[in-house]
């Protein structure tokens, strides 16, 4: 009997990692009905982190919460409660920025006003529940607020020269004259999942590199936001050059101030869901993401999975929405592009589950022959 571990990342904006894994399993089963599957949907801290843990950890429970979303309106979302463990006797909460303050929650970009308040409110809800560990995924952010919204929701105050709270979002950064952390809630163990190593400020910083994705279009806008983040770093007493501090518009730096430890997202998720043990007993592991390109080798889920598979002498397979010419597919025993199967990117995006099922069948045929 063939044993297959299914460990894709989410196909951003179209399918969760859990749904992608299910579609791949359906396609493989059509060719190899006797195959046994182990579902370990993956994430690297971005969109789908909560869903990935929910699918992989028995006994995980969704905890509903209403938060202030990045569009300035209240949204229904949730965080995930994992069962107690030796390292977290009161349980672990998994919170992701993508489902609380993420860019996918916006109908239109709000570069100056979107913020991370919703993330902080979900974290506060988990603290109220009494968890002893927080796992926070900070990919897919909508804002460049330096994590001020998150810290405010946890009790910090960012004040202007008159002692009044500054505006939310990147808009308020330039007005911060003082920071009051006296009421900031105590942090439990906090593990922060990110695949970003950029510093807070400068040419590789949050505003310069990621700001345009969030609507900071002009050089003047980027410089203004960068100056605001530098001002925030001075007031918080942190080095803006810190690795990973620029993640999620500066939320990485804010979480470090609170007591969090930044960690490579894919590796941390894999450890927490027992992925290496699952792969050790498998014949194949299938991974994937929406776009496998030249950047996918830098700590992203597919390349990380390929490394685990190589150590276990398990064959790694790839199914991606598209595979670009500069992508390194030599890491995989076989790879398939949904765009190629569907005939165009538009067709693949219109029904990704269908084409993932087809991809699962394509990947299974050599194994079953």
Q: Short summary of the structure?
A:
This protein has 369 residues and is α/β, with parallel strands linked by helices. It has helices at 17-31, 49-56, 98-101, 117-129, 148-153, 206-210, 219-236, 247-258, 265-272, 275-280, 301-312, 338-342, 345-350, 352-368, and strands at 3-6, 36-39, 61-68, 74-82, 92-96, 133-137, 157-159, 178-180, 189-194, 261-264, 284-287, 291-292, 315-320, 322-323, 334-337. Strand 3 and strand 4 form a beta hairpin.
Descriptive report:
There is one protein chain. This protein has 369 residues and is of the alpha/beta class. 37% of the residues lie in helices and 19% in strands. The protein has 14 helices and 15 strands. A 6-stranded mixed sheet has the order 3-4-5-6-9-10, sandwiched between helices. Strands 2-1-11-13-15 form a 5-stranded parallel sheet, sandwiched between helices. A hairpin with a 5-residue loop joins strand 3 (61-68) and strand 4 (74-82).
């Amino acid at each position: 009997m063939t044993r297959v571990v299914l460990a894709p990342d989410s196909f951003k904006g179209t399918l969760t990692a859990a749904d992608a894994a299910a579609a791949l399993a359906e396609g493989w089963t059509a060719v190899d009905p006797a195959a046994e599957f182990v579902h370990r949907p993956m994430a690297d801290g971005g969109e789908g982190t909560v869903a990935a843990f929910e699918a992989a950890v028995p006994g995980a429970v969704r905890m509903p919460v209403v938060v202030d979303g990045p569009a300035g309106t209240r949204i229904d979302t949730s965080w995930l409660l994992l069962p107690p463990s030796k390292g977290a006797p009161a349980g672990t909460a998994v919170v992701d920025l993508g489902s609380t303050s993420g860019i996918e929650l916006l109908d239109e970009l709000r570069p100056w006003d979107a913020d991370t308040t919703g993330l902080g409110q979900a974290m506060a809800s988990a603290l109220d529940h009494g968890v002893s560990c927080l796992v926070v995924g900070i990919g897919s952010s909508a804002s460049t607020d330096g994590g001020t919204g998150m810290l405010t929701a946890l009790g910090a105050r960012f004040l202007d020269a008159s002692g009044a709270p500054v505006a939310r979002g990147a808009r308020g950064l330039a007005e911060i004259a003082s920071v009051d952390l006296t009421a900031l809630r105590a942090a439990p163990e906090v593990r922060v999942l990110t695949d970003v190593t950029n510093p807070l400020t400068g040419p590789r910083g949050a505003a310069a590199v990621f700001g345009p994705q969030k609507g900071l279009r002009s050089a003047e806008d980027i410089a203004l936001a960068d100056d605001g983040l530098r001002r925030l770093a001075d007031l918080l007493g942190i080095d803006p050059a810190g690795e990973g501090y620029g993640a999620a518009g500066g939320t990485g730096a804010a979480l470090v101030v609170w007591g969090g430890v930044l960690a490579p997202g894919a590796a941390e998720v894999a450890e927490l869901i027992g992925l290496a043990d699952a792969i050790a007993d498998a014949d194949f592991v299938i991974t994937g993401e929406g776009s496998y390109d030249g950047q996918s080798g830098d700590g992203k889920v597919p390349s990380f999975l390929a490394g685990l598979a190589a150590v276990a002498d398990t064959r790694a397979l790839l199914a991606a929405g598209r595979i670009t010419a500069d992508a390194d597919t030599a890491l995989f025993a076989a790879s398939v592009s949904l765009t190629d199967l569907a005939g165009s990117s538009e067709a693949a995006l219109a029904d990704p589950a269908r084409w993932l099922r087809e991809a699962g069948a394509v990947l299974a045929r050599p194994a079953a022959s």
